[in-house]
Amino acid sequence: MKKVIAGLLSVAMIAAMAGCNKATPTTTAAGTTASGESKPAETTAPAETTTAETTVKATYGEGPVHINLWSFTNEVPNMAQKYIQLNPEFGKKYTVDVTIIATTNQAYQPALDAALKNGEVDMYAAEAAFVLKYTKGDGAQFAAAYKDLGIDVDKAVKDAEIAQYTVDIGTRTSDSALVALGYQATGGAMIYRASIAKEVFGSDDPATVEKEVGGGSGKYDTFWKAAAKLKEKGYPIVSGDGDVWHMVENSSSSGWVVDGKLNIAPERQAFFDISKQLVDNGWCNETSDWQPSWFADMKGLPQEGKDNKSAFCFFGPAWLINYSMKDNCGGKEAPADGNYAGNTFGDWRVCKAPAGFFWGGTWVLASKSAAENADKKAGVAELINWITLDASDKGLQYLWANGLFAPNADGTPGTKDCVASGKVMATANGEVAFLGGQNMFPAFIAANANATGKNMTQYDENINALFREQVNQYAHGQKSIDDAIKDFRSRVADKIGEDGSL
User: Fold this and answer.
1) Any idea what DSSP says for residue 43?
2) Is 450 within the bounds of a domain?
3) Of 38, 147, 268, 351, which one has the greatest count of Cβ atoms within 10 A?
4) What is the pLDDT of residue 54?
């Protein structure tokens, strides 16, 4: 039975956990995985927290003009709070009224949609899992063009060297207006174990390893040769096929929907064979994303009850390092004896992945009603500009990249993250102890440049889950590839339409 688009969206598989911590959905932030999981925010958190069942309200500033800010985590609201702390005069003119509703149980989007229709929202956040709904899809009519806020957006994007894929995703199709930008860049790199690289390839140098795996080649031939070399020493190249999936999905030549019909891009269909090669050749540990065995590979430990060696690499953005790998590596500093079994802190490096991709992110939008309100317009523009476009040393992105947004208790820099502005990252200090002191920004600047947002649709989270289910069954010999594709199309039709149309 054919379902309407709204029905599809209402069952979006957005789990509680972009960048990613399975255990703490109440502090999640930018970035979305194939399962809809998100990373915890690195911010100055408000007193209240968000759960799947609650709506959090907070108020920052004391001015007579009220700006209504909606978000699914406390990350963007904390930025507004920080701006007021740094610019008290803004808080004397404006009051930012915050509403936070978690994405768990699909609570955020229906509530946001109703509030947008009623003109109750001035600024709002949308993550990669559903941002296209609000920039190109069913909710795009509510978004204000940045230029209508008075922002010289073309100049600002150019001057800040904003990652193009984030611009493409934030550009409304109907009028080519830029209606959303992010503050975080989520281009993906290869994150690998230095000690294993030295043992197998003779060097842990990122340039050497990049050549060994075919970094930036757009192909997998060299990657498979590296997998074979690693297997000779007993190491799987990745933990599970999900580690490669994000690279495949977001480097595809077309999206899941073309002209209203279900479309399987050749790169995505090739994932059937990619997954099966990983399984059949023992090139992965057959783990599933966000499960204990996956985290065990981050610690350098065998899976429970097995004697396998830990995986060589993961693929992902900086948030995967900062909010998943660092928290699950087994230690807070590098082991003094150089034995990384159970504590891999300091044994990781980054280089280009074989194919360019991004994974997750949060975009910030303004409503048309705010742009049409003379009192609110300037305040909304000021906040959005500071968060998404200001590349100066006073801007959010400079603070974020240098770990100055939420410094440690002793005053030292906190978590350093990749930002949308290439100009900021080119001058920021990206040296990270978890990566053995490597400056991660050059690798991620390249990753952001090689990412594309032109293969996304607003239905991706639903379809990705259905596709990966069928790929998994094929890779483990439970059905033929023809049956897997047939069943995939049938499952999509059950949710979307009998003919695959949308």
Assistant:
1) S
2) no
3) 38
4) 63
